[in-house]
């Protein structure tokens, strides 16, 4: 699956712009700076791919990438930057809600959580949104190379406690470091299992 090149398809700003729902889809969500682009690049084995999502003007879009003929990888806009104007925030929240609750082919959301910080209130908002949209989500700890094992375990326990409140949570948490390559093969295998 991941031997194929991933390609950017389009950035979507309204439901009418979604590509045809003709294949399995998974999406990635996370606070700005959590390491989402780096992780998507590590997964797909490309350097420049998710940079497309971080380009000015693309950061409020839902970005679609193909991974072979049978899978869409969907990069949701990073959240948690307080400096975006309210109408902009409200517009993408509306789109996000519509997308998550309306997309038949969406199999799972991967919610990225920084291994140093754990689940923050702004993350919990997305988790609740996923609950109400009935989208199964799985948490991925990022940047595990930046924490000592003891601190990581403390954060892991905090994430587990937070997940227990969310009916749509898939219990297994994936530990990753895009820097070191840790957890990337695991995540690929999980994704391959969803097709
Ligand atoms: P995004 O805003 O979520 O797309 O975050 P980026 O992928 O742009 O990453 C934000 C910053 O974290 C960048 O400086 C990355 O180099 C760094 N980063 C991302 N993943 C890792 C990781 O696994 N380990 C370390 N040490 N740094 C990382």
UniProtKB/TrEMBL annotation:
Its cofactor is Mg(2+). Pfam families: MMR_HSR1. Keywords: Cell cycle, Cell division, GTP-binding, Magnesium, Metal-binding, Nucleotide-binding, Septation. Residues 22-195 form the EngB-type G domain. CDD domains: YihA_EngB. InterPro entries: G_ENGB_dom (IPR030393), GTP-bd (IPR006073), GTP-bd_ribosome_bio_YsxC (IPR019987), P-loop_NTPase (IPR027417). The keyword Amino-acid biosynthesis does not apply. Belongs to the TRAFAC class TrmE-Era-EngA-EngB-Septin-like GTPase superfamily. EngB GTPase family. Necessary for normal cell division and for the maintenance of normal septation. This is Probable GTP-binding protein EngB. It comes from Sedimentitalea todarodis.
């Amino acid at each position: 699956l991941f031997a194929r090149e991933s390609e950017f398809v389009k950035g979507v700003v309204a439901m009418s712009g979604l590509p045809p729902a003709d294949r399995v889809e998974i999406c990635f969500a996370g606070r700005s700076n959590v390491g989402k682009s780096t992780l998507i690049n590590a997964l797909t084995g490309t350097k420049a791919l998710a940079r497309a999502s971080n380009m000015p003007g693309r950061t409020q879009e839902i970005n679609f990438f193909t991974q072979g003929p049978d899978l869409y990888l969907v990069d949701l806009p990073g959240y948690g930057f307080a400096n975006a104007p309210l109408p902009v925030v409200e517009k993408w929240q509306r789109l996000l809600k519509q997308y998550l609750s309306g997309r038949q082919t969406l199999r799972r959301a991967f919610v990225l959580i920084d291994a140093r910080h754990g689940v923050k209130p702004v993350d919990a908002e997305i988790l609740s949104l996923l609950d109400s949209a009935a989208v199964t989500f799985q948490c991925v700890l990022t940047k595990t190379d930046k924490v000592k094992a003891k601190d990581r375990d403390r954060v892991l326990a905090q994430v587990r406690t937070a997940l227990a409140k969310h009916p749509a949570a898939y219990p297994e948490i994936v530990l990753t470091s895009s820097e070191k390559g840790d957890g990337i093969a695991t995540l690929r295998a999980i994704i391959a299992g969803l097709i």
